[in-house]
Amino acid sequence: MFSRWSHSHHNQENDSLQHESKVKELRAALRPLSDRGLKYCTDACLRRYLEARNWNVDKSKKMLEETLKWRSTYKPEEIRWHEIAVEGETGKVYRANFHDRDRRTVLILRPGKQNTTSLDNQLRHLVYMIENAILNLPEGQEQMVWLIDFTGWSLSTSVPIKSARDTINVLQNHYPERL
């Protein structure tokens, strides 16, 4: 019994060393980066992209380069509340005033409170809320929790399929390992 734990502990240390090696390899493959890219590409960020692509450096690099390109045009860090405030009037997405047991930030989504038809603004609002939640994550915490309350939701209040696809694309390709 003890030897299994010891063996398992040894494997964890070995995995950790291999993962750190992959982080360094990915960082080297990404050079050169802009100031904005350098700020975004922390070791924790690189680990998330590597984890999302099963520690494959080439696939992680491609994914991260796409995100950097998206961030340079979409500029999520420059979205301001007054630009998307109408989207938040009904409380369809908000950051909870509590954390879960693991101290993760909690976002509450209430699709039944849908109040607008602008797909672009809806996505900008969601990106703003995600970026805000990330800024409020405790030190060392990389993930957040989403609670989805479907009270009041119906087909008439649901977002169009295109909006859902665009949202899923942004979440899986530009915020890997965050949920």
From TrEMBL:
Listed Gene3D superfamilies: CRAL-TRIO lipid binding domain (3.40.525.10)
CRAL-TRIO domain span: 81-179
Record-linked InterPro entries: CRAL-TRIO_dom, CRAL-TRIO_dom_sf, CRAL/TRIO_N_dom, CRAL/TRIO_N_dom_sf, PI_Transfer_CRAL-TRIO
SMART domains, alphabetized: CRAL_TRIO_N (SM01100)
Region of interest: Disordered: 1-20
Listed GO MF terms: phosphatidylinositol transfer activity
Biased composition annotated in UniProt, kind: Basic and acidic residues: 10-20
PANTHER family hit by this protein: GH16843P, SEC14P-LIKE PHOSPHATIDYLINOSITOL TRANSFER FAMILY PROTEIN
Protein name, per record: CRAL-TRIO domain-containing protein
Taxonomic source organism: Gossypium trilobum
